[in-house]
Amino acid sequence: MADPSLVYPRPHDNTIVYLKNVIAGPNIEVGDYTIYNDFADDPRNFEKNCVLYHYPVNGDKLIIGRFCSIACGARFLFTSGNHALSSLSNYSFPVFFDEWGLQGKDITQAWDNKGDIVIGNDVWIGYEAVIMSGVHIGDGAVIGTRAVVTKDVPPYTIVGGVPARPIRRRFDEETVEKLLKLRWWERDEAWIREKLPHIRAGEVDKL
Fold first, then answer.
1. pTM of the model
2. Strand order in the sheet with 28-30
3. Is 83 a catalytic residue?
4. For the domain bounded by 16-84+115-170, which CATH number is listed?
5. What is the location of CATH 2.160.10.10 in the chain?
């Protein structure tokens, strides 16, 4: 039986975790079976090492779906890492409100608020990829190694590069439509286990 409540889904392997079970922050939501691999550090430190500039004052969220695969060194850069481009200066004066006689309640004016990062289901995020604030990644997408994703990624699209650009769709349009309608990742374990040979073989018509 698959057990989504485990921290380490593979016996004797402490480099991979079910991410949902190591998250503490209230503004991070992760679906069942999503994995994070880290061979350089303890993968339980995902929140500290990979979710950057994610300050509670903004209320923005990191939302990750089910059955995603996140490789070592992936980074999610949030709004507080931005600077207010409407300002004549790149310096974040509102952050240092005490020194400059500003109002502490206006601290969020130091950056442009881009919003939540939303990762769909069955998404593969490659080694050291960077996902910027406000980006939405569709179901089944692939983010290439060291890509910097600044714009939304459509479902079942492979992107790569700096900034990331579409390389190709994973499947033809008809197959993508069927998969998005089927939403296999929401099915129960028994259904997935039964259909797994067809999922792995790419046989969408047998699902």
1. 0.94
2. 28-30, 62-64, 117-119, 136-137
3. yes
4. 2.160.10.10
5. 16-84+115-170
